[in-house]
Write a structure and sequence with these properties.
The chain is an all-alpha fold and 118 residues long. Helix content is 75%, strand content 0%. The chain folds into two domains: 67 residues, Arc Repressor Mutant, subunit A, CATH 1.10.10.10; 39 residues.
């Protein structure tokens, strides 16, 4: 299950680098939890064909993450934001300072969101 979650995160970040067919098959596998046989039937290809496309797509995603590291960096930022929120949760701040802190933390958290809100 952890592998599927990780693969889904990689797909979320690097999906545009894959072919349309790789995207479709990887999404069915990760998001819809379809078996290789189910995907093969939907796509009109063999189970082995699905396995090959999944393997190539996953390898490409992992190689890209190794080179670029967006998923790793996003996870680090999320952990740091969580730690900051926890650290300052009970600190006595003036209302204006608390609002400024929350605004800054929200802006940092929003960096990884797509500009069009998707």
């Amino acid at each position: 299950m952890e592998r599927l979650f990780e693969l889904g995160m990689l797909l979320d970040r690097y999906e545009p680098l894959l072919t349309e067919r790789q995207r479709s098959i990887l999404r069915q596998y990760t998001d819809e939890n379809c078996s290789l046989s189910e995907i093969a039937e939907r796509e009109g290809i063999s189970r082995q064909g699905v396995r090959d496309i999944l393997s190539r797509g996953e390898r490409q995603l992992r190689e890209t993450e190794e080179a670029v590291g967006l998923v790793r960096k996003e996870a680090r930022q999320t952990a740091l934001l969580r730690a900051l929120r926890s650290r300052f949760k009970d600190v006595d701040l003036r209302e204006a300072d608390r609002a400024a802190l929350e605004t800054a933390l929200a802006a940092l958290a929003g960096i990884w969101e797509d500009e069009d809100g998707v």
